[in-house]
Design brief:
about 35% strand; single chain; eight-stranded mixed β-sheet; 2 helices; about 325 residues
Amino acid sequence: MMARSRQRQTGFSLVELMVALVIGLVLIYGAVRLLIDSRNTQRASDSSTSVQEVATYALAVLEPDLRLASYWGLTNRADLVTGNTASTASRSPLDALVVNNCGVNWSVDFTSYVQAADASYPLGCAAQGYLAGTDVLVVRHVSPETTTAQAGTLQVQSALMRGTLFADGVRPTGYAAAPVSVTHDVQVNAYYVATLANDVNGQPQWALRRQRLTTVAGAPTVVDEEVVRGVQDLQVQLGFDTSGDRAADVYVNPGSEPASATLVAVRLFLLVVSEQRDAGHADNTAYTLANHTHALYSDARHRTVVVKTLQLRNPAI
């Protein structure tokens, strides 16, 4: 009897085994579900973070450029810089030196220290996939740091209340050495949004790009370069002082500039998008940036709109 009783107590019954399997499956399912939820949460967090990082970087490029607009060294008076030539005038000899130029006197029209085009790309230099409906922003100034005269580079030699454009590497006649007069490189940037090739997963991609005046092989040259990926829209509004107090009284879309008013501020609108989809993300927002409204998106990608108003430090007065 004792031996038989011990034999009955060894092992598990079929019912016990099934209960154990069910419990194990439930625990495994819970662990897998927790892992999946954790990964989805991490993916959503990463997408949201990447969108914010792109927005921050784009503004970090645009903001200091706009703050410098109409800075010509020791003067902010473009009309006092010899060689400054409007785009409506005949092409200047200095502008004619520029390779891949973006338009007549595009590099030397200092009076137009900030320009914007509404939903169009008006430049002569070819864009790399310009996205229709987005704005173009052009900013002009000289470099914040002084430099030395260099042949083949567009530069401004400035003293108090006057300046001269030159590109031959020789300090213009009548200007004393630094610090009485100083040399700065001319900087012109035109920002636009471009459509890129789809990624490996077939997702459309966009980027903020710019046409930048620089020096290549000893000649002033406009180069096209990518600033940052993930910017799907750029819209611009221009702030004008109509009362003479150097504060913006009205903000308008490009092409609606008031007559006899001074440009003193720029308002930027950026739509930034994540690179990858987030399957659990639903976006029910109809984004509106200035005068451009987007249809609802159903691609499960994170988006955010960033708006920044910048006061110009050197408006023409």
